[in-house]
């Protein structure tokens, strides 16, 4: 039967193999590593690839409060499985606004924030950039480096992108002067993609004073800030402090876009829970913006998935649930900070050559170690330590049991000639 | 900080015009806002039981119980989604026999319900088919097909489908239009329960289209949102898909579980491509992932888990098949009831097309003016195209609806 099929394909012009020319796409730089880790049979393997939280037992973690609320949602007889509105669950959207902009933000009361529920952070970015393309098309400035999927999203949305020199490899810190200089050359009306906190992949964030400098150049060049917030609560451990940049820019009167993800901070990864916010100058414009945002969403998924948003809404709109969540988040963040400290200690104890201060100075899930691609390859191939070739390490994958082996492996590859 | 206040007066968004309300979801919103106690929602394509209530299937509830007991984590799905769901979905769509033979060369990807399948499928077509390849859509079709094609950058053409005179399919017009189409075009077919007309093709007609497809090297894109929901039989409803694939024609298939499993808000769907062999399938999957990553990174898990458990647990699968048959039967009953009631009221018009059409929707034949009156006077909500969702009818309101339709049409032409 198969032979006949092959013959048909060869001689029958109507069975031209329309997909014959398709080439294998490269594996996703991040998910690809997760797959390689899964396939590795070594018992010393360490997964420092994908940005997903792990416990000290290397297990994924479901927040206790999430488990409880998930049961409530699934068991609620008054809930059905009907379509959500295009823009998503109203309670969830309101809750997202308060979490991002502050409970008492005047922008919420004045109707200046347009919010739509989206498919995690990626979904919010894609919807935001599709909207940009249709209504305020301009060049997009992204940090060098940035999360790899940013470039893909912007490209698929049909926008041009340029880089601003975010990371200074010499100081392993934020290159403020370079960033300001670059943005001051940007065409007026360009869009600037900014990480709100816990920059991915570097872990390096601007100080409050530096944020004011960024605001200044955005004002001067009429740049539109597009904030990506995937780690609220994971940077300093304080949810208000972590969104300082968004609230400050809002206070300064900026109209802007914010992408918000609950994948990490509520551990709702696979239910794709996020939101996009557009800050306008008045509620009439908000109505027009919302109507167009809905058109973009309608052609991607029609309306967003319900269950994750219902769970998140229960946290965002109920004080008891909210406090329980904040406490758990502090514990989770605390463990990551502890691992940073432990790793630095081990590296210092082993007298590994180089300055490793950045490990404790950087914040959030990731550290830009400064390791070269070749060193990363060696770490993976020889020591079964999985990280990105950019040198990005997910600190959430470190445990009290594997931190010494990790430090020893780093020492080995750094010292290798 | 005074200098920053000026920012508020300059609006970044000032050029943004008001976007048109979605023709379907907009009407649903109108219905929601209406305080009338006799209001009837015949607009949105979501199933309702005989009490007018949304339904959560027992098979779904039981699958959710199983999930709860398993205590699973919430980790990211891979970009392509839940593999066991994808496999089960493909098996359901293509049939056990074809799947056993060719399953390894079908490239599948979990997507955000039917909309996501069309979006991802169209993006793939745009990227990999020769430049200038058009997608042909039936006239009329689900309006969102047009929107998605535009967003994906695909050029759209139409083929005649609905004949307003017969209120059935204009098959000769259809064939004429497809004969004129460019070789190698993408042809969008509704696998069953055509939306919005409810007019489906016969087996003989599908066979003719199969020959045309081979002759002109078309790429058929089957949008299947109502498998099981149409005739009550999942195999019968997938007849067209299986007719084409049995002849070795490569197709694209979009599957939605919104209606047939009642998983609407969970956004559960599958997109698949018939490939020449496993190597090609791997390449196609890798490219689908490349497009899905910047759309949604990975799809939502819950609905896929539910569908996966149902399809792979024989007892639940049987229960589900019974439930979907029951939904299809109730719809059929309401069609007959509406058509018969209109007849018994002495309507001057022939309403037999309502019972002849199939699936969730009926193209009643009423026009925009009738619709305005139906909404304003009777609080009956339907689309201005005259499309009604039969699922909104029940024993409690079918007489009222028939009387209203009779009233607004008795002195007019249809």
From TrEMBL, chain A:
GO terms for biological process: amino acid metabolic process. Residues 44-410 form the Aminotransferase class I/classII large domain. One of its GO terms (cellular component) is mitochondrion. It comes from the Eukaryota. Its cofactor is pyridoxal 5'-phosphate. One of its GO terms (molecular function) is L-aspartate:2-oxoglutarate aminotransferase activity. The keyword Chaperone does not apply. Its EC number is 2.6.1.1. InterPro entries: Aminotransferase_I/II_large (IPR004839), Asp_trans (IPR000796), NHTrfase_class1_PyrdxlP-BS (IPR004838). It catalyses: L-aspartate + 2-oxoglutarate = oxaloacetate + L-glutamate. The keyword Transferase applies. It is an enzyme of class 2 (transferase). Keywords: Aminotransferase, Pyridoxal phosphate, Transferase. Homodimer. Belongs to the class-I pyridoxal-phosphate-dependent aminotransferase family. NCBIfam families: PRK09257.1. This is aspartate transaminase.
UniProtKB/TrEMBL annotation, chain B:
CDD domains: AAT_like. It comes from Paramecium octaurelia. GO terms for molecular function: L-aspartate:2-oxoglutarate aminotransferase activity; pyridoxal phosphate binding. Its EC number is 2.6.1.1. The keyword Transferase applies. Residues 38-405 form the Aminotransferase class I/classII large domain. Transmembrane segments: none annotated. Homodimer. One of its GO terms (cellular component) is mitochondrion. InterPro entries: Aminotransferase_I/II_large, Asp_trans. This is aspartate transaminase. Belongs to the class-I pyridoxal-phosphate-dependent aminotransferase family. It comes from the Eukaryota. One of its GO terms (biological process) is amino acid metabolic process. Keywords: Aminotransferase, Pyridoxal phosphate, Transferase. Its cofactor is pyridoxal 5'-phosphate.
């Amino acid at each position: 039967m198969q032979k006949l099929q092959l013959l048909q394909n060869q001689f029958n012009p109507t069975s031209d193999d329309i997909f014959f020319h398709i080439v294998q796409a490269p594996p996703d730089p991040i998910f690809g590593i997760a797959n390689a880790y899964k396939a590795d049979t070594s018992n010393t393997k360490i997964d420092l690839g994908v940005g997903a939280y792990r416990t000290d037992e290397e297990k994924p973690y479901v927040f206790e409060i999430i488990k409880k609320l998930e049961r409530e949602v699934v068991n609620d007889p008054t809930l059905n499985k009907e379509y959500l509105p295009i823009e998503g669950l109203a309670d969830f959207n309101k809750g997202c606004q308060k979490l991002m902009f502050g409970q008492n933000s005047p922008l919420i009361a004045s109707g200046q924030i347009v919010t739509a529920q989206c498919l995690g952070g990626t979904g919010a970015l894609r919807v935001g950039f599709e909207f940009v393309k249709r209504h305020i098309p301009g060049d997009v400035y992204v940090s060098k480096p940035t999360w790899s999927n940013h470039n893909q999203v912007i490209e698929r949305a049909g926008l041009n992108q340029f880089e601003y020199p975010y990371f200074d490899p010499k100081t392993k810190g934020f290159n403020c002067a370079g960033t300001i200089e670059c943005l001051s050359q940007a065409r007026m009306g360009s869009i600037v993609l900014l990480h709100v906190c816990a920059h991915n992949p570097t872990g390096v964030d601007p100080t409050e004073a530096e944020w004011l400098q960024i605001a200044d150049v955005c004002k001067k060049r009429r740049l539109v800030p597009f904030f990506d917030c995937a780690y609220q609560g994971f940077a300093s451990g304080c949810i208000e402090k972590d969104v300082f940049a968004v609230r400050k820019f809002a206070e300064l009167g900026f109209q802007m876009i914010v992408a918000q993800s609950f994948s990490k901070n509520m551990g709702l990864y696979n239910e794709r829970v996020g939101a996009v916010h557009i800050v306008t100058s008045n509620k009439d414009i908000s109505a027009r913006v919302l109507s167009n945002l809905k058109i973009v969403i309608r052609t991607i998924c029609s309306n967003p998935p319900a269950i994750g948003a219902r769970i998140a809404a229960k946290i965002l709109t109920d004080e008891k649930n909210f406090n329980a969540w904040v406490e758990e988040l502090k514990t989770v963040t605390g463990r990551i900070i502890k691992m940073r400290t432990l790793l630095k200690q081990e590296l210092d104890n082993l007298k590994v050559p180089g300055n490793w201060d950045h490990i404790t100075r950087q914040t959030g899930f990731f550290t830009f170690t400064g390791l070269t691609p070749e060193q990363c390859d060696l770490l993976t191939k020889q020591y079964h330590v999985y990280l990105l070739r950019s040198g990005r390490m997910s600190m959430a994958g470190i445990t009290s049991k594997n931190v010494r082996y990790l430090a020893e492996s780093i020492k080995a590859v750094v010292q290798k000639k | 900080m005074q200098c920053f206040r000026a920012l508020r007066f300059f609006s970044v968004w000032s050029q943004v015009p008001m976007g048109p309300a979605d023709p379907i979801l907009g009407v649903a919103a109108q219905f929601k806002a209406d305080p009338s106690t006799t209001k009837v929602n015949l607009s949105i394509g979501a199933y309702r039981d005989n009490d007018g209530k949304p339904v959560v299937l027992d098979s779904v509830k039981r699958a959710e119980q199983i999930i709860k007991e398993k205590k699973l984590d919430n980790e990211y799905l891979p970009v392509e989604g839940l593999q066991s769901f994808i496999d089960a979905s493909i098996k359901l769509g293509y049939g056990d026999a074809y799947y056993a033979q060719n399953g390894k060369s079908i490239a599948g990807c979990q997507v955000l319900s039917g909309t996501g399948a069309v979006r991802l499928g169209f993006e793939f077509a745009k990227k990999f088919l020769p430049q200038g390849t058009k997608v042909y859509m039936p006239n009329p079709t689900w309006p969102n097909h047009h929107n998605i094609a535009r967003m994906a950058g695909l050029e759209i053409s139409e083929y005649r489908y609905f004949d307003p005179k017969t209120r059935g399919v204009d098959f000769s017009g259809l064939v004429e239009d497809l004969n004129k189409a460019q070789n190698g075009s993408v042809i969008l077919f509704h696998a069953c329960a055509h939306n919005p007309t409810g007019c489906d093709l016969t087996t003989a007609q599908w066979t003719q289209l199969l020959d045309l497809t081979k002759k002109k090297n078309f790429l058929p894109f089957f949008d299947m949102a109502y498998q099981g929901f149409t005739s009550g039989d999942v195999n019968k409803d997938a007849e067209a898909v299986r007719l084409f694939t049995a002849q070795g024609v490569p197709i694209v298939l979009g599957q939605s579980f919104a209606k047939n499993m009642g998983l609407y808000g969970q956004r559960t769907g599958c997109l698949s491509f018939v490939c020449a062999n496993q190597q090609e399938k791997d390449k196609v999957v890798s490219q689908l992932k490349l497009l899905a990553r910047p759309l949604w990174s990975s799809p939502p898990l819950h609905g896929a888990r539910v569908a996966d458990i149902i399809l792979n647990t024989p007892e639940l699968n049987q229960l589900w098949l019974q439930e979907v048959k029951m939904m299809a039967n109730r719809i059929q009953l309401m069609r007959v009831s509406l058509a018969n009631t209109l007849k018994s009221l002495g309507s001057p018009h022939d309403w037999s097309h309502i019972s002849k059409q199939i699936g969730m929707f009926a193209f009643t034949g009423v026009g925009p003016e009738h619709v305005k009156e139906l909404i304003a006077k009777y609080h009956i909500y339907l689309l201005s195209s005259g499309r009604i969702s039969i699922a909104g009818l029940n024993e409690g309101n079918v007489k009222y609806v028939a009387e209203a339709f009779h009233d607004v049409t008795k002195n007019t032409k249809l």
